[in-house]
Amino acid sequence: MKSIDVCLTPDLLHLHAIDNSIVVVADIFRATSCMVTGLAYGIESITPVATVEECYAYQQKGYFAAAERNALKVEGFELDNSPFSYMDDRLVGGHVAMTTTNGTLSITKAKADAVKVLVGAFLNLGAVANYLQSQSYDVLVLCAGWKGRVNLEDTLFAGALVEALKEEYMIAEDSALMAMRAYQQAQDDLLGYVSNSSHVRRLQRLGIQKDISYCLQRDLYDVVPILRGSTLVGI
């Protein structure tokens, strides 16, 4: 039987064997929510990179460029880390390079060894679950967290995916069980459940309440971003 596991922070990824796994990266507030939104709104591809310097190099090649550090846009780049920035008609058919504090770093860490890397968010939860049900590999949900620390919103997404797949996948370790039970508690009021979490407080201080509410909506989009080489495209 296939198994599903959860890695609560990329700093723990070295403890997981992922050579037979599809890794689903989740950075709910806000990188993976941006990626799902952008591809759903017609962006052709998104190239996630670990550093601002790499992102700038893509910008010099003509890419739209998105750079975020500590929840703020880096000066000199077109896009920030708000999903609403990715609903712009001028981006349709375009190519975006993106670097963020946590999400793109997690993708970079996973891509060398995973069978496939997908991007997950509450926005495409059902589409990701449906895709995984058609695959023959184990699954690891990689929570981007915050600078190596565990965070609540990514853990809740991981738990939601475990809940959706629990009939087809063996729950491998306690982290997956903990995440699922947290989601079961939170599912009827996700916004209330995360209201005092560290990243929500961080974003609220910056006046980004609408992003929080948006990113907690379930199943707005059918797109599943998948890494092809170094670039995310929608399937």
Helical content stands at: 25-40%
Strand order of the largest sheet: 7-2-8-1-9
Mean pLDDT value: 93
CATH top-level class: Alpha Beta
Percentage of residues in strands: 15-25%
Question: Rough shape?
Answer: globular
Helix tally equals 9
Structural class: alpha/beta
- Please count the beta strands (DSSP E, at least 2 residues each): 11
Architecture overview:
The chain is α/β, with parallel strands linked by helices and 235 residues long. It has a single domain, classed as putative 2-phosphosulfolactate phosphatase. It contains 9 helices and 11 strands. The chain has a 5-stranded parallel beta sheet, with helices on both faces. A 4-stranded mixed beta sheet has the order 3-6-4-5, sandwiched between helices. It has a two-stranded antiparallel sheet with strand order 10-11. Helix 4 packs across helix 5 (152-165) and helix 5 crosses helix 6. Its EC number is 3.1.3.71. Its cofactor is Mg(2+). It is an enzyme of class 3 (hydrolase). It comes from Runella rosea. It catalyses: (2R)-O-phospho-3-sulfolactate + H2O = (2R)-3-sulfolactate + phosphate.
Please describe the topology of this protein:
Layout: E1 3-7, E2 21-26, H1 31-40, E3 45-48, H2 52-60, E4 64-69, E5 72-73, E6 95-99, H3 103-111, E7 116-120, H4 125-133, E8 138-143, H5 152-165, E9 170-171, H6 174-186, H7 190-193, H8 198-205, H9 209-215, E10 225-228, E11 231-234
Parallel strand pairs: 1-8, 1-9, 2-7, 2-8, 3-6, 4-6
Antiparallel strand pairs: 4-5, 10-11
Helix pairs in contact: 4-5, 5-6
